[in-house]
Amino acid sequence: MTSLTDKPALNLSRIAIHAVLLLAVLLYLVPLVVMLLTSFKTPEDIGSGNLLSWPTAFTAIGWSKAWATVSGYFVNSILITVPAVLISTAIGALNGYVLSMWRFRGSQLFFGLLLFGCFLPFQTVLLPASFTLGKLGLASTTSGLVLVHVVYGLAFTTLFFRNYYVSIPEALVKAARLDGAGFFTIFGRIILPMSTPIIMVCLIWQFTQIWNDFLFGVVFSSGDSQPITVALNNLVNTSTGAKEYNVDMAAAMIAGLPTLLVYVVAGKYFVRGLTAGAVKG
Amino acid sequence: MATLELRNVHKTYGAGLPDTLKDIQLAIKDGEFLILVGPSGCGKSTLMNCIAGLESISGGAILIDDEDVSGMSPKDRDIAMVFQSYALYPTMNVRDNIAFGLKIRKMPQAAIDEEVARVAKLLQIEHLLERKPGQLSGGQQQRVAMGRALARRPKIYLFDEPLSNLDAKLRVEMRTEIKLMHQRLKTTTVYVTHDQIEAMTLGDKVAVMKDGIIQQFGTPQQIYNDPANLFVASFIGSPPMNFIPVRLTKQDGRVLALLDSGQARCELPLGVAADELEGREIILGVRPEQITLGAEQGNGLPGIRAEVQVTEPTGPDLLVFVTLNQTKVCCRLAPDVACRVGDSLNLQFDPARVLLFDAGSGERLDLAATAVKDNVTRFKGR
Q1: Chain B residues with beta carbon closer than 8 angstroms to that of A174
Q2: pLDDT digits (tens, 9 = 90+) for B92-129
Q3: Which residues of B touch A176 (CB under 8 A)?
Q4: Distance, CA of B4 to CA of A278 (rounded, Å)
Q5: Burial status of residue A215 (CB atoms within 10 A of its CB: 0-12, 13-18, 19 or more)
Q6: Buried b vs exposed e over B175-197: b needs ≥16 C-beta within 10 Å?
């Protein structure tokens, strides 16, 4: 039995492929490694050695200082992200349900117009949004940021759910109506239980968007209500005193961890859910 | 248990658009099995959705037990429906699928359990109750869908092409089972299909539809033997009825239709007054089984010799194709008839059973059925 890998020529090309891949992996890993190493170094160590050198002594002092500085903003981010993600996903699901199963006159046009929301750049809504928040008395509050994120996210969440629900046979809703179920009963008992993949997609997408948002955070919040992205920027950009790179790196890692966690936990649904919506049979 | 009546039901999806349903008028008695049959796009499914209340009607009235339900929502009409796609709730197991409607109607749990058990036994799906629909075969899903409809004991069952997703063998089995079920339960049923065999075998009453209009409403026998027009005649029956354009001649005050097979001619006496047909193009409708092989000794029926062009043995029958008046004509003969392509057969027609249609309007010319008999007697006497 000779398999393909036994042949020397193929072996060589295989080695070449793996070498290139390994190189790419290293290239992509270097920033992370530098960040990790630096975050565990002492300030003196950073000042004396080069970026890639191994720490002379591992210390968590950077992490504890970073956490002391950004923990309040970390909580802010959670207080903004969690409600905004949940509310925008819930409304998006309901919107998608109506736009696919309970079509009304002009619902296609409505959906079409809603899609414009996906193409609007953040910058264009800054002024109108701040005007509205001011009128509502929500300027510079966490609730105000939640509102902005919910409204901005609705176009995406509605699109996700509508496209997913379009592939569900309408007969299901008809059968449930004949069984005596109403609008919300059908949604809660039949449609929602089928929606796990698209809910996951929506949660990941919205969480990433809102957690990583900087622009809305910096414009619509101030002082103690700022999210972690803004706080991180403030921390890194301070021009007074000595640069504490170990603290910067640790803070950046702290800011990035939640999104990483969401991908690890719910990531397997992401591709599945996206394709389920996209590839309509 | 209920009667169903449709009074001038009318449906359109908007001004300027063609009507989907036009002046639908029919009534069935308690316990009857009504078939809505027609080609796709004829409005039969729309009509069913209107009866169910899933779509509103633009005019007329739908009455169940003499009560106008046109404005009622589906849940208040007390109707259950079996869908072509089965529409089983995919996240619920079979038990919950059947029980869903009962739970919504707030039936006590003990009664629900009892009802589910009854239905499961009736449909022999007891062993499937804990499974999800995705784990069932097509036939099993079909049973569960029927179980869901049976569980509520509604006034009326609606079936929307329930067998069209099954393979041929299973379809025949389930057809018999649905008929058996109806004989046992005697619940008023409306059944939509495009399959004319289902229509013939299942229905007490059949409504043949085309372009949103009921072409004919009657028993399967009436539809088969007395079709109202060319469309009904061509749609019901397999192989379909032969339509032969004929020229008419007058002789001794009787009207004769001329048939020409290329090698022989024949005059078929028709039982209609001559002046009625003056100047009209006529189409002769003959079912394949009504063309018989001529007996050795003449039995008095008119016959014609024609050349066999194609033979199709189907098992129970032998289908023989000949040409009459430049039209391909199918004859359904006994399977033991020995004939080969090129042979010449003596084919006979029973003038009493031949139908006449107006070529222009497609309407059946049902003129003086008694006169036909007179003519035949006269013909035989000759």
Answers
A1: 49, 52, 54, 74, 81, 83, 87
A2: 999 999 999 999 999 999 999 999 999 999 888 999 99
A3: 89, 100
A4: 44
A5: middle
A6: bebbeebbeeeebbbbbbbbbbe
Are the folds of B4-235 and B242-381 the same?
Answer: no
* CATH code of the domain made up of B242-381: 2.40.50.140
Second-level CATH architecture of A63-278:
Orthogonal Bundle (1.10)
Q: Is B332 helix (H, G, I), strand (E, B) or coil?
A: strand
Tokens 């649905």 -> residue? B178
Task: Please state the φ and ψ torsions of residue B94, each to the nearest 5 degrees.
Answer: -60, -40
With contact defined as beta carbons under 8 Å apart, do B21 and B46 qualify?
Answer: yes
Contact between B257 and B264 under an 8 Å Cβ cutoff? The reply is no
Alpha helices, DSSP H only, in chain B?
44-52, 94-104, 109-123, 138-151, 168-185, 196-202, 220-225, 230-235, 274-277, 369-381
Q: B91, A171: Cβ pair inside 8 Å? A: no
Q: Residue type at B170?
A: L
- Stretch B121-142: mean pLDDT, rounded? 91
| Domain B4-235 indexed as CATH 3.40.50.300 | yes
For the stretch A57-91, what's the b/e string if a residue is b when 16 or more beta carbons lie within 10 angstroms of its beta carbon? eebebbbeebeebbeebbebbebbbebbbebbbeb
Overall pTM > 0.95: no
**ipTM score:** 0.79
- pLDDT per residue, tens digit, chain A (281 aa), is 445 555 555 688 889 999 999 999 999 999 999 999 999 988 888 877 777 788 888 888 889 999 998 999 999 999 999 999 999 999 999 999 999 999 898 999 999 999 888 888 888 889 999 999 999 998 888 899 999 999 999 999 999 999 999 989 889 999 999 999 999 999 999 999 999 889 988 999 999 999 999 999 999 888 888 999 999 998 888 777 777 888 999 999 999 999 989 888 887 777 666 555 443 33
Q: Where are the domains of chain A?
A: 4-39, 63-278
Residue B270 pairs in a beta bridge with: B255
Residue with tokens 């630096």: A38
Chain A interface includes B148 (CB < 8 A): yes
Spell out the residues 6+ positions from residue A16 whose beta carbon is closer than 8 angstroms to its own: none
Give the integer Cα–Cα distance in Å for B227 and B237.
Answer: 11
Chain A contact probe: residue of B100, B144, B159 with most A CBs at under 10 A:
B100
User: Looking at chain A, which residue has its C-alpha nearest residue B14?
Assistant: A105
For an interface test with A, which of B17, B77, B104, B150 has the most A Cβ atoms less than 10 Å from its Cβ? Answer: B104
Contact A175 B104 (CB under 8 A): no
Q: Which pLDDT score, from 0 to 100, does residue B138 have?
A: 87
